[in-house]
Amino acid sequence: MLYENTTCPACGVEFREGDDIVVCPDCGTPHHRSCWKTFGKCANEGRHGDGFVWTAPRSAAKVNEYASKTETKEETEVICPSCGAGCPPDTLVCPECGMSFGAVGRAFYGAEQDFNIDPGFFFDGVKADPDDSIDGIKARDAAAYVQTRTVRYIPKFIAMSRKNKKVGWNWAALFLSPLWFFYRKMYKAGILFVSLTCIALLFASIPLSNASADFVEYMSNYIEITNTTTIEEFSEDYNEFLINYENLPESERTEIERLYKGVASCFALFVCSYFVANIFAALYGDYLYKSKMVREVASMRSFAKNDKTFLVLAMKRGGVSVFSAIGCMLSLNFLFQLITGYIRIM
């Protein structure tokens, strides 16, 4: 379309494919036919005496130039509509100017790509040299990728890199794993720890289910437990059982205590099995995060031709994802319901 990305000067609405457009015979300014009829004159009539000639705005000219280039370039190359640079296929950001391709990118970073964040913003408060090396990348680049809690992670990563350490301790990974992995966009590690947690709980549920079934079966001699038993009936039988407990034969009390301890120990094993994977996450979480960060920062730096492009990429690929953590939490809740349902069936 000849007037793509330009607006009618009379109504301010952008021209679209199929619009009925008329052009001023004196200066060449395009108008909607309906606007021309409504105003009865060119919107730029006051400038005709100065020899004014309408030209497409810079952004529209770039689009037209981009369209002409895409007709001659090979399909394996993407032309940036902002600077005209050739970009690798399927790229999201121009390596030359940092232009974000696609409607989502333009909406997030602004139509004119006014992305002027200070490169040192994420390094504020970090007690380290911005040029310190973390496995070959600069600490300032690592901070741009980490974005949140850089005061904790950047010095930690620098120390791990200098000492070549793989083992550390991360309290968030201990108590919030595997949510923490999804929050930090480590999706592969998150899926791995979700699987390990579910497998551990599934195996631990087998002895717990068996011990619970044995205990319930034995207690049914004293307390009526059926599908139709109400809470009131159960409470009445249970209170009567407690009152008469000391009057039971010693052999029966011993058996009840043995079965109860079996249920308690199996339940403790079930709870501990949840933290088995979390302990490994706490020990190796920082190392896994550092390794992923180093790989992605090195990849983005090799692609980007300037700091602006690198920061655009780091903002998109780094940082945290609250929605991923929430999705993981909902998935875990669903899996736990399946496991508890399995215990009831057994």
Structure notes:
The strands form 3 sheets. A two-stranded antiparallel sheet has the order 1-2. A two-stranded antiparallel ribbon has the order 3-4. Strands 5-6 form a two-stranded antiparallel sheet. It has helices spanning 33-39, 58-72, 102-109, 139-146, 150-163, 171-176, 179-183, 187-219, 231-244, 250-303, 307-317, 322-345; strands at residues 21-23, 30-32, 78-79, 86-87, 133-134, 137-138. The relative contact order is 0.11. The radius of gyration is 33 Å and the shape is elongated. Helix 4 packs across helix 5 (150-163) and helix 8 runs parallel beside helix 12 (322-345). It folds into 3 domains: 1-56, 2-Layer Sandwich (Herpes Virus-1); 58-109, no CATH class; 179-345, no CATH class. The protein has 346 residues and is mainly α. Strand 1 (21-23) and strand 2 (30-32) form a beta hairpin. The model is unreliable at 59-63, 69-76 and 103-114 (pLDDT under 50). Helix content is 58%, strand content 4%. The protein contains 12 helices and 6 strands.
Overview features:
two-stranded antiparallel sheet; 346 residues; two-stranded antiparallel ribbon
C-alpha termini separation: 68 Å
Element pattern in H and E: EEHHEEHEEHHHHHHHHH
Unreliable stretches (pLDDT < 50, length at least 5) are 59-63, 69-76, 103-114
- What's the structural domain tally? 3
Summarize the amount of helix as a percent range.
Answer: 55-70%
Number of strands: 6
